[in-house]
Every structure is written in C-alpha cells, then in structure tokens.
Amino acid sequence: QAQRKNIDLEYIWHSQAPESITTDPTKLRQMLLNLVGNAIKFTDCGSVKIEVQLDITQHEPLLILDVIDSGIGIPLEKRANLFEPFVQADSSVVRKFGGTGLGLAISRRIARALGGDVVIKDTQGSGTTFRITINTGSLDDIFMLPAPSSDALQSQRENSQKEIIQLPQGKVLVVEDGEINRKLIEAVLAESGLEIEIAENGQIGVEKALQNNYDIILMDMQMPVKDGYTAATELRQSGIETPIIAMTAHAMLDDEQKCLAAGCSGYLSKPINISRLLTTVADALYVPHQVDAIDTQAAEAEDNERNDHPLISSLPTHKPVFAKVVVKFVDYLEEQLIMIQEAIDNGDHARLAWVAHDLKGAAGSAGFADFTEPAFRLELMGKNKDLHAAQASLVELTKLSKRIVVPEIEVLA
Fold first, then answer.
1. pTM higher than 0.70 for the full model?
2. At what angle are helices 349-365 and 320-346 packed, to 10 degrees?
3. What's the CATH number where 311 sits?
C-alpha cells in the first residue's frame, strides 16, 4: 500500500527493546495494522514512521510505539470524540477516503485490554502521531535488543530504496538443494522478469534440463543424490549447450577451474550476492546491465564495527517477497542450531560440517553476513574432527540469532 503511493515506510528504535513480551500477538498486530493502514491512507506524500521505545520508569515496563505520518493532521476540536465508534475527523474524509470510523475505537479497546492505551498527539497540517502503549509483562530473563546504530538505520533506508534491475524475458532452471538460497534466487530473478523453475538436486536438474528448454541453468555444486559437477558433465555429454552457472561456497581458484572443467560457463561464490547474480545472469543473456544493483553484503561492512547492534538483513525487505525470505531463514536458523547442538553432543563430525556449511551459505544469502565466520569455524571443526571449541561457536551463533530484526510482512505488504 505504501509502495503504491510512493510513501516511505520506516521503523526506528530509540532504546533497547525486549526480544519478546507477554501479550496477545494477534491483537497487537491487528491494532498496529489498523493504525499504520490509516496513516498510509491519509498521507498523500512523505512518510509513515513506526518509532519504538521501552519505558522502564513506570511500575510496570511499557512498550511505546508511535505511528507518525506526514498527512493532513487532525484539528484540536475534532479529537475529543475521535475514538468513539463511527466517528471521522471530518465528513469530507468519508467522501475522499471512505471508511467506517471503527478502526480507532477498536484499536483503543484492544490496547486497553492489553494493559495499555492509544492516544493522539499532533500538530494540524504537519501530520499526526498515534501513540500505542502496551504492558510488556515481566522482562526478567528476557534478552534485550540494543538500539541500532545510526549506520545500521542508514543502511536499512538505503536498502529500502534500491530496486532490482529488469532483465528481458527468459527461462531459468535453478538447481539448488538449500531452501533459503532457492527462495532468494527465485525472488530476485522473478522480480527481474524471468521465469523460474526449481530442481532440488542434480538428478532432478538433469532430468528437467533434458526435457525442457532453458536460457540459463544455475547449478549448485554441493548437492545430495547427484552433485553439480556430475550433473554439468552429464548435460554437456548429452549435447546441452545452455549456459550453466556454477554456485559454490568454495571460493578457491582450483574449485573454479574444477567447475569450468565440468562444463560450467560461469561461476558464482556463496553466499549469493544479488548484484553479482544479476550481473552474471545479464552477461549470460547478452544484455547490458547496470552496476548499481543491490549489493547484499556492503550494508553489513560498516555495521560490523559493533558487536551488539541488531542484525538487519541487507536484502530489500520493503518488498514482501524478500521479507518472506528473511522470515523463512529465521525459522530455518532455529532448526539448524538444534541440529548443530545434536551433532556436537553426539560427536558427529560429518554432520556438524554439513549443517554448518549449509548455514554459512544460507545466512549470507539471507543478508546476514555476521553468521559466516562462526559457521565457517564450525564447518572446519567438523572437517578436522576437532570439536574442542565447537560449543563456543554455537553460543556465538545463538547470540547472533537473538539480535535478528524480523520484518513484519503484514505491515510491509
């Protein structure tokens, strides 16, 4: 909705915030969507911001969310009954924007049921601010997320303004066993105008490539059932001349040569960098391309100077398709951390190496480069059969996971 009106939608933390609170998530989401939806509806240009802070000066801690728009504002004389059912600030509002006037009444009722309130603060003609306060419940033993640095917020704003370059029509086969990488590649290329088909391993990839015509094949090199080297070799031996772009987490020169020897036309290292992905695909399609497409790793470079900032994906999560990739990664991450702990407990070196390798690539592709180094250390420990420091690296990954800022898909959509 904000995108259609060309309105910036931002969120800002002014203080540390709890990782979780004790409340009704469905009702909180409904209230926030009501207020953000109203803010967007009554704003013709400018921005809508969601500012978050924690108030611990009261008897019970309160989470404060300010929904701020740069819209038409509400006159003082119209505010007294604004939270009454079926009341609009002005009759002209109904004619222009529609609506029943129930949204604010419902939002206040929800907030008060959750131990808080909704109030209005504004200056007519310069926008409106609705403040939501919510009782958080006890915050004892709750992990606190520090406020993001100004650099992190700037990176987030820059990411939200970048767009995916458009490519001509074409059909791409993505052969990749990692779900996070599959979803990211599919999202990026579909956003660029390409038709995508998926194969979960090399065997399925070979079968699809022999049965259908594709303009490009993106081939992961490390897969179960049949790896990418074998699949690429078989396709070339079968007379398939379609460009095959190898994707591998091993960024060594001899590995690149191995990919080329198997018949691959090009090479992409993992984690997948969106800018390089688009450039490589554009080259394979023989089309001119811009060099200022999204760089999925540059955003983290400045943030890495701090080790306590919230982790914001460098993907353009203002687009719901990329927000969903991040949400999927968070679910995946929880499962991977459990699997790593089990591998350490069981002394299963091979499984530890495989799970850590998969996590390393998926995290980078989802826009979280901070995970790469500790995951790589765990991968090496598994390969070297040396688990003496594995638990420490797992603890580091777990702490990182608690700092991830998960995009709210409903608000973004």
1. no
2. 160
3. 1.20.120
